[in-house]
Structure to design on (340 residues):
């Protein structure tokens, strides 16, 4: 039977992404119109729809901007008649609950008078500061690019620019795009800097098997492996977790047989290495690293623990990760005076 490195398509990844022009005034045909591309402006407790305005004399960059079609916007239809103060311009970018794994922004801005802050605001967590550098005042800035993982952070993201009007004349303009990168949050990047070679193979009609082999880890008394099933949720839990062991083995190389790994499930494989030469002592001799992965019925990818334990476990702490990992290591069967 032909063996495939990828199964069918529950987590199919399309090469086509959702791109949208987020420029100010892009849908407007002239100055003096209410902005219709989703932008709002807030001054104090008042939030309103801004207006497109003409470039101010020869000072502001002429509009519409070629390519993105952006126009200057202002809280009112009249340029040069604004109350000095702070004005916050925002636009929502909605990230759907499924089918998208990243958000990429690529844009430029300009302003009059002072840009006091520029941020990308996720649905949860702190705002992400962005930096605009304008070589020429009142002309578009450098290209500002950022890509954010949206797994576990779906919903309304916002671009937020706070502009200080020092005098009665002010404005704001943004030219650029937002791309919603299609994919599934069960995808993980391939592991790097681990001491394990790891691969998954799916056989049509035969399930998924995993193979893992330790690199340069046979110099001590051996290796142990434990596998746990974890909740994938909206974000892959790429780290060791407490809980019952689903499968375990010893040896420098292992094969997790078909029937253990199920589609739609996520797993953490922990590899233990005994670095001592004369004894198996989980408390003093064991180092470990974890690999997490999900079975997505698509190209299988994996990710390392971002904070692997690179030293022997020297101290037990009650009800801690280290304590539980030591217990797991002690469950691995002894073979010929060592492990593996």
């Amino acid at each position: 039977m032909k063996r495939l490195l990828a199964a069918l398509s529950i987590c199919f990844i399309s090469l086509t992404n959702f791109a949208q022009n987020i420029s100010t005034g892009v849908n407007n045909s002239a100055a003096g119109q209410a902005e219709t591309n989703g932008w709002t402006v807030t001054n104090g407790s008042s939030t309103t729809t801004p207006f497109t305005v003409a470039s101010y004399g020869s000072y502001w960059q002429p509009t519409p901007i070629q390519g993105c079609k952006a126009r200057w916007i202002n809280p009112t239809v009249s340029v040069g008649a604004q109350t000095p103060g702070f004005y916050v311009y925002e636009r929502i970018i909605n990230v759907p609950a499924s089918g998208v794994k990243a958000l990429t922004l690529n844009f430029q801005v300009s302003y009059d008078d002072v840009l006091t802050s520029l941020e990308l605001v996720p649905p949860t967590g702190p705002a992400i500061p962005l930096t605009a550098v304008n070589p020429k005042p009142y002309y578009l800035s450098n290209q500002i690019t950022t890509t954010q993982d949206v797994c576990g952070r779906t919903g309304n993201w916002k671009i937020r620019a706070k502009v200080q009007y020092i005098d009665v004349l002010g404005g704001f303009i943004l030219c650029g795009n937002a791309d919603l990168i299609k994919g599934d949050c069960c995808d993980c990047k391939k592991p790097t800097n681990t001491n394990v070679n790891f691969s998954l193979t799916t056989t049509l009609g035969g399930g998924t098997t995993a193979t893992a082999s330790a690199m340069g880890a046979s110099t001590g008394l051996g290796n142990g492996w434990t596998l746990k099933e974890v909740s994938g949720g909206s974000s892959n839990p790429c780290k060791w977790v407490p809980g019952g062991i689903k499968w375990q083995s010893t040896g420098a190389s292992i094969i997790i047989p078909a029937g253990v790994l199920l589609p739609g499930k996520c797993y953490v494989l922990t590899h233990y290495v005994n670095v001592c030469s004369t004894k198996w002592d989980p408390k003093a001799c064991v180092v470990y690293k974890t690999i997490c992965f999900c079975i997505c019925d698509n190209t299988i990818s994996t990710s390392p623990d971002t904070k692997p334990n690179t030293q022997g476990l020297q101290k037990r702490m009650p009800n801690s990760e280290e304590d539980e990992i030591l217990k797991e290591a002690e469950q691995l069967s002894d073979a010929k005076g060592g492990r593996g």
